[in-house]
Input
Amino acid sequence: VVFLHDAGQEEDLVVHRQPEGDTEQEQHAVELGRTRGGECVRRQLEYRPSEREDDRRGARCCAHTEGGTMGPPVRYIPKTHDYYRRSGYPIPYKYARFDTTPFAPLQKPLERCRVGLVATAGVTLLDDDGRPAPMKVLGGEEANVVQIPSDTPVERLLPIEEHYDRHATTVDDVNAFFPLTHLQDLAQDGTIGGLPPRFQKIFPNYSHRVTMSGDAPEVLAQLRADQADAALLVPV
Amino acid sequence: VGLVARHLEANGIATVTFSCARDITEAVRPPRSVFLDYPLGSTCGRPFDPANQRAVLLAGLRLLETGRTPGEIVDLPYVWSTDETWKRLIFSPEQPFLSEEAEARRQAGLDAAREAKRKTKATLPN
Output
């Protein structure tokens, strides 16, 4: 179920969900996904949003759901711009913005896929005595990718996250922002094929360039080395 | 993480991105996303509610498997609370986002990052 809400004044971002199967690229994606059978061949597909009028349909309404009514989501981009301007940062942070999206359909059933986890979670690994253990930072000159063994018991991760809504929620439960136990359970019960030996923790970086030239290639290299088929990305 | 998701996907690894910030996700357009209308910090479900966390995770995995629409965002039906004051107060003048100590650490972190640029990468404690 997909709900649409008021997209506000940003004209370049009205469509939240692209129409299904009615573009050439989409058809192509579906075909590729089917014709390759069980063979693990992946293709990058580039989706270009259509200019057509009916793609821009449906810009307002809120979600009504069981258990309550949701108002519109927080619009963090204008809120943080205002907040940091008032705090003395006159130049607004430039959020990344793209018109196209790379797409690689999953090539085999989930129960045969090795699923990784890449998160910005502020957690630190504890040793046998409950003291913070050294964590290995990998990557090139500017990358900051920390590996966390995927079989780590969740009790061994101490939450040290600070960039969260401390007035509304808590980070005392690591599984709510680094779903370690759940992934271990899902691998155990066969919902997913398995876990790579390590998960990746990255640091939120204000520089898109550093993220793209440092962190992203390092994460990719680790997932490839571990033969991961898919990855869950979890920001805080 | 949206940038990393895009990079992985462009290189053949299927991704799903979890989000509590829909407008940022709309801008970055990761390949597949699930949006959970919860406060920042609870991206994968309500703290101490494993059933909710598992449901959020399974929704993401389902999208990973069945998604055929690049840039799709699936909105999850879970409601944080009937009182939505938290949405108004986040990043408001009356409620500083970071504590003073955390803000000081953020500043120190930025300084350290500049410093670290000049040094060789090494094994560091977190």
